[in-house]
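I would like you to sit down with the pair of lines that follows and say whether tokens and residues agree.
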Amino acid sequence: QTLTLTNNRSAMYEKAKMPDLALHDCDSILELDVMHTKARTRKLRILESLHRYTEALIQVCALQLKFVQDNRDKLRMGIPVTPPVQQSKIEELMGHILPGEIEMQLERIKGKFGLDLGDGQGGA
């Protein structure tokens, strides 16, 4: 019953545009039930709205893992099942994450080797 009440309160916080309180409630729910799909889906939605894409992707992974566990037999038999997160959503999140990750890795490489790759002269 506590999970249900906390989940409902989290939904109201989300609707009231109070993301920090909604996230706190989602985290409280997930501490008690790591596979609580509604709380995890809400947390994904809120994190994405806050542009916290890497954290949102973690929620996608957790949802997809639960989906695979719950539907293992159907997937093995080739029975079509709809995943909880569409491929387009995963691609959208990755589109937000990858440019920053690439830039960060380039900076690490430049620092490690003392290169200036951004001068347009090929680093030479």
About this structure: The mean pLDDT is 93. The helical segments are 2-15, 19-32, 37-49, 53-70, 72-77, 87-113.
